[in-house]
Each structure stands twice: as structure tokens, then as C-alpha cells.
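Standup notes, structure subgroup. Blocker cleared on the S-adenosylmethionine input:
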Amino acid sequence: MSDAVEGTLYVVATPIGNLEDLSPRAARLLGEVALIAAEDTRHSAGLLRHLGVRQPMLSLHEHNEAERVDQLDARLLAGDDVALISDAGTPLISDPGFVLVRELRQRGRVVSPVPGPCALVAALSAAGLPTDRFLFSGFLPAKGSARRKRLGELTERQETLVFYESPHRIRATLDDLVTTLGDRHVVLARELTKRFETLLDGTPAQLVEQLSEDPDQSRGEFVVMVAGGEAQEEAEQTQLSADSLLNSLLEEGLGVKQTAAVAVRVLGGTRKQWYQRAQLLKDRD
Ligand code: SAM
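Run returned:
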């Protein structure tokens, strides 16, 4: 048996779109390890080329992960450090790596995270939905009936709900949100850190409408965030007090534009948001 000091498995987060988001530590380690286990070696070759890293790569994906464990363990035992990366973001988060990390930790190997980009955390950090408690549910089932069942199981949850979604299914998922979670506040984070980064707010029905009006909004990668049950009640209370302020200002004879300007000062938010709301309340009268 070798008496070499055992190596470390570094679980390295890589960018979800913007290459500048790779941490200096991640870049250094990728250039130092003996081997990089990558979800898709061809995909990651681009990142490594960008970094000037020439370390050997080995594929590790959902179909061969279990087989790779012994092979990678042998390298660690021989004293080699190994990095695990996925196509984008943090490995193991809706990405391969769980089986490897579980097995290696059970065997007593050193596994060390190198934190960085993660789409769900990035999305939550910019959504303005409660983040003190959230429930990340990964990808919803592809089949409509199973998807609606899963959403139905989550209706009572009070945490902010977070899902990953692909462009092929975003419309179907929003349609299912209309029927299962109704009028909740939803934030759709698209193409984060990329050129067409967009955050859309609305009820599921409003978002369906926005996507129908602008098909470009269905392109790219999505994080879907839904206000939890309790948060929704609070949001309704906030909306009620905002409405009562807007109504009083309108009753005082202020125009919609002036009302929106006052509301921004009192309530925060944007002029556009309060303009639209004040206009709606005025039209309702
Ligand atoms: N491990 C990754 C992470 O840490 O976020 C997630 C990998 S998962 C296979 C890919 C999904 O993450 C996409 O379908 C999308 O839902 C979400 N995602 C990844 N990059 C994104 C981005 N730039 N903007 C929005 N969502 C993104």
C-alpha cells in the first residue's frame, strides 16, 4: 500500500453563464488537481481552455457515476487531488455527484466544497421573495399528471417554492401553476448572468400572458419561484394597505401619475408599479 497522503475531492462550482463568476480559488484548484471529473468533458473543455488549464479530464455522469467511484477513490488513495465539476453551477444540485460524494465520505475520504454559482441561490437573491425558508424541488416531473400531482402536494407549504425548468416545459408548468397554486406571486428568473437575463413577476396567469405576447421570454434556462402559502397571505395584506393608500390619494383628487409618485416615497417599489396599480383602481371606480 502507498504511504502517500490521501488526496482531496474538491467539489467545484463553475459559472451558470458568465465566466467572470468563476472564483479565483476555483480557477487555481482546477489548474492544480491531478484529474478533473466532469459531467460532460467536451462541454467543460471550453471553460478549461478559457482558463488555460490542461489537466486531464474524466467523464462522470448519471450513467457511469457508480462505476467511477472505485477509480476515483484509487486516485485519492494514491495522493492525487481530484476536482468534480458539472456543466454549470454547483455539482450535485440537480447535477451528478451525489453517489460519488456519498460513497467517498462513507469511505472516510476528504471531500471539500469550492463554492460559487448556483442558479437557485442566484435567483432567490434577486427575486424579492422570502428567503428565510425555501423549498427547492429541482425539476418538476415531465409528465403533466405527475407534475400537477407534485404541485398539488406543495400547495400547503409556507416556504417559498423553487423549481428548475427547461424552455420546452416552461409554458406547461406555468399553465399547471394556474390550476394548482392559483394567484400566488411567481418570479421567473431567466438566463441569469447572461445577455438576456430577465426577471418577470406576476401571477401564473399573468406570466402565461407575458410569455404568449413575447415568445422570446420562453427561451433559455429558468428558475421558477413561487410565494409560499403564508407569504401569499402577507402579500395580500400588503396589497390591501397599498390599495387603501392609493385610493385615498385618488379620492383626494391626485392624478394617477402624482399618486404613483407619492406611493414610491411611502411604500418603496417603482413608479411604474404604482402607476399601473393606481390606474387599475381608478378604472375600477
Ligand atoms: N447545478 C446547477 C446549479 O447549481 O444551479 C443546476 C444544473 S440543472 C441540470 C440546470 C438547470 O438550472 C436549468 O434547467 C435551469 O433550470 C437552471 N439554470 C442553470 N443556469 C441558469 C441560468 N443561467 N439562469 C436560470 N436558470 C438556470
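Discussed briefly. The chain has a mean pLDDT of 94.
Next: hand off to the docking folks.
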